[in-house]
Amino acid sequence: MNVVSFLLQSILVLIFLLAGNGKVSGYPMHVESFKRWRLPQWFRVVTGVVQLVGAAALIIGYWEPSWTAAGALLLGFVAIGGVLTHLRVKDNFYQTSTIFIIGLIAFVLFFLNMSALSHFPGFGG
């Protein structure tokens, strides 16, 4: 694992552990955001669980790189959903750019570890 990959992975683990926990726990900020985005609260919980699963995959990825690729890909798709949500409700550039940058980090991490994905459980390899 190279230093850049390790650093990006650590950043994403921290971000998504905090964000996922906040959504699942029902922190007021997340509850209000999902109301403003006109999304149901059950979707907030599902989103939080998916974020926690992605963060867990990245943590496993410290020992098994294929999990880094899988977790980064999952979180990259979560970020695409976040960007589309911000665009749908016409949030400002700052609100949208944060998740966009996080998504870029996730996809860069994925591409740095993409070759390991062939060793992911169930992919044969």
Question: Could you walk me through the main structural features you see in this protein, from its secondary elements to its overall organization?
Answer:
The chain is an all-alpha fold. It is 78% helix and 0% strand. It has one domain (3-119). α3 (41-60) packs antiparallel against α4 and α4 (65-88) runs antiparallel to α5. 33% of the residues are buried.
**What's the story with the biggest beta sheet?**
none
Low-confidence stretches: none
**Backbone structural class:** mainly alpha
Distance between the termini: 19 Å
Discrete helix count = 5
Q: How many runs of DSSP E, i.e. beta strands?
A: 0
What is the helix/strand order? Answer: HHHHH
User: Into which percentage range does the β-strand content fall?
Assistant: under 5%
Q: Using only CA atoms, what is the Rg?
A: 15 Å
Which range best describes the helical content: under 10%, 10-25%, 25-40%, 40-55%, 55-70% or over 70%? over 70%
Shape descriptor reads globular
Domains, number:
1
Overall mean pLDDT stands at 94
Structure at a glance:
The protein is an all-alpha fold and 125 residues long. Helix content is 78%, strand content 0%.
Reconstruct the topology from this structure.
Blueprint: H1 3-25, H2 28-36, H3 41-60, H4 65-88, H5 93-113
Helix pairs in contact: 1-3, 1-5, 3-4, 4-5
